[in-house]
Amino acid sequence: MITVARAEAAGELEPVPGFIESAFNPLVYHAAVACLRGREFDGSRLAVVVSSLIGDATTTGLASRLLVGGQAHNAILFMQATANAVLGFLSRELDLTGPLLSMSTVDEDPLDTAELLLADPELDAVLLLSVELAADDRTEAVYRLLGRTPPTTDGASALLLEREPQ
Fold first, then answer.
1. What is the number of other CB atoms lying within 10 angstroms of the CB of residue 137?
2. What percent of the chain stands above pLDDT 90?
3. Lateral strand order in the sheet of 100-104
4. Among residues 1, 8, 54, 130, which one has the fewest Cβ atoms lying within 10 Å of its Cβ?
5. Whole-number Å distance between alpha carbons of 105 and 59
6. 106: closest CA among 145, 133, 137, 164?
7. Is the pLDDT assigned to residue 138 strictly greater than 60?
């Protein structure tokens, strides 16, 4: 049997130290914390998966514009452009030592990934984090090419799937 907890994050959020410019990482962090708040868990037995169709397009777009404009590159942008960067921060803050994964939802369903992870007897739970940023002109074209509706707002959701103790 699986139990489920949910949380969502949207709108203006407190910044997360080390992450600038984009709402992507604060959305992931705040959705995860809201979902896990008040729960007792063994951080070594919890897997965390962040999924997104396009990822942090705000940071990628900014880094691209700086490069094309001949401006100095901000090293923080390189680090935070990968979805695993916020998972590293989250794991340090919440003492999570289980698997940390990031995935695109182009061809994969995060629930299938959670099912595979929960088949591992060394894991008790999977925290699924889904995050999408409001589409800009560039990402809207990608959504349309993929036959998907572009999001109009930034948002993240968290779903905690826990296996019942036996």
1. 8
2. 51
3. 2-10, 155-163, 125-132, 46-52, 100-104
4. 1
5. 19
6. 145
7. yes
